[in-house]
Design a protein that fits this description.
alpha+beta, single chain, 2 helices
Amino acid sequence: MQAPGTSHRNHCPNCLTSRHVDERRPGDRAADCGARMEPIAVAVRGDGEWILIHRCTGCDALSANRTAGDDNPLLLVRTAVRPLVQTPFPLELLGEL
């Protein structure tokens, strides 16, 4: 059985990394960089679909990629909660507000 979203995936379902191959639009293969794209965040569309945000380790370019039905759920959740775990300020400050 094939999971939804897997026929046009551009990232590894296990580690969620990708390669910087597209430049302006998905599938254009116009990027010369070719470096590793690391998942750094998750965004949620209005319809509830999760989108992976990747940053290129070579040139710092950002890209948004749809998740697929067989993507590693643990890594998706870890990526989504990372900003809550690694806050830019001490969490104790929230109690003072």
